[in-house]
Design brief:
By secondary structure, the protein is mainly α. The protein folds into two domains: 3-184, Orthogonal Bundle (Endonuclease III, domain 1), CATH 1.10.340.30; 213-293, no CATH class. 50% of the residues lie in helices and 5% in strands. A three-stranded antiparallel β-sheet has the order 1-2-3, covered by helices on one side. Strand 2 (280-285) and strand 3 (290-293) form a beta hairpin. Helix 2 packs antiparallel against helix 8, helix 5 (67-74) packs across helix 6 (80-97) and helix 9 (138-146) packs across helix 11 (171-184). The two termini are 25 Å apart.
């Protein structure tokens, strides 16, 4: 079983009923709700939308609504001025260019004001059952990097990396699971690693207790991997290390810190077999020098 499949399996057991938490009855309602969800929680959006959708039922209704009236409805969500303008603009374009029907392709959806790939993926997968990409919101972005599934920060680059290693049939399910787990456990600040069901698969978990390789070697000897790492750090050169496990990398991270007598920052990213043959990438940074060990 691949590591991605293992992540999906464990999270599926933890969140067996993981589905989108925005309330909607049709593609138009999901479009509006997704625009409203920017920088807000789904729970807060769901408090606003029942009255909103009762008042405005069609694309034509939203296209012709008074801007200030719509702003008044959605003001509690924040960013209400830009969100109102996006909703009106998107619905006007749908009326003019798509016969008042929310389009069902990535190409058409992303022509609408306020609709990027993330919003389009939400609508396509949840309203039309079409998986043309992976939803990358703030939770998916954060967890994907912590799990070492990508080293990118740009959502579109993250999506490309995930699409290469996550089976297509799991694209919606995978992103929904990460969203649930990000909300419940893997918070942006102070993640609850000890309660995490996938901590054994995560190189970023905060409870790693490394064992130094030289503890198992005769006195006076240092492991070849630690020596290579220390030399690379000292010279600032890029080196290939004979290590492919988190255990080995954790060990020489501590070795470097002890022997360099400097305050170091370690960034460890795992690349799946599909991407680069199950190798780890370690970046070591200090005030005076830095080296990337691949």
């Amino acid at each position: 079983m691949s590591r991605v499949s293992d992540i999906i399996m464990r999270l599926s057991k933890e969140y067996p009923h993981a589905v989108i938490t925005l309330d909607f009855e049709n593609p138009l309602q999901l479009l509006v709700a997704t625009i409203l969800s920017a920088q807000s929680t789904d729970e807060r959006v769901n408090r606003i939308t029942p009255a909103l959708f009762k008042e405005y039922r069609t694309c034509k209704d939203f296209a012709e609504v008074d801007l200030q009236a719509l702003q008044g409805f959605i003001k509690p969500l924040g960013l209400y001025k830009s969100k109102a303008a996006f909703i009106i603009g998107a619905c006007q374009k749908i009326v003019e260019n798509f016969h008042s029907t929310v389009p069902n392709s990535m190409e058409d959806l992303t022509t609408l004001p306020g609709v990027g790939r993330k919003t389009a993926n939400v609508i396509l997968s949840n309203a039309f059952g079409k998986e043309e990409g992976i939803i990358v919101d703030t939770h998916v972005n954060r967890l994907s990097r912590r799990l070492g599934l990508t080293s990118q920060e740009n959502p579109q680059q993250v999506e490309k990396d995930l699409m290469r290693i996550v089976p297509r049939r799991e694209w919606l399910h995978f992103s929904t699971l990460l969203i649930y787990h990000g909300r419940a456990i893997c918070h942006a600040h102070n993640p609850e690693c000890r309660s995490c069901v996938i901590r054994g698969l995560c190189p970023s978990r905060q409870d790693i207790q490394p064992v130094l390789p030289h503890e198992h070697e005769p006195p006076g000897r240092t492991s070849s991997s630690s020596s290579t790492a220390h030399k690379a750090f000292s010279t600032g050169l890029k080196s290939t290390l004979p290590c492919t496990t988190l255990h080995e990398f954790s060990s020489f991270c501590e070795f470097l810190e002890r022997t360099s007598n400097m305050n170091l920052i370690f960034t460890l990213v795992f690349f799946d077999e599909v991407l680069s043959g199950s190798r780890w990438k370690l970046t070591v940074v200090s005030k005076n020098r830095s080296a990337t060990l691949v």
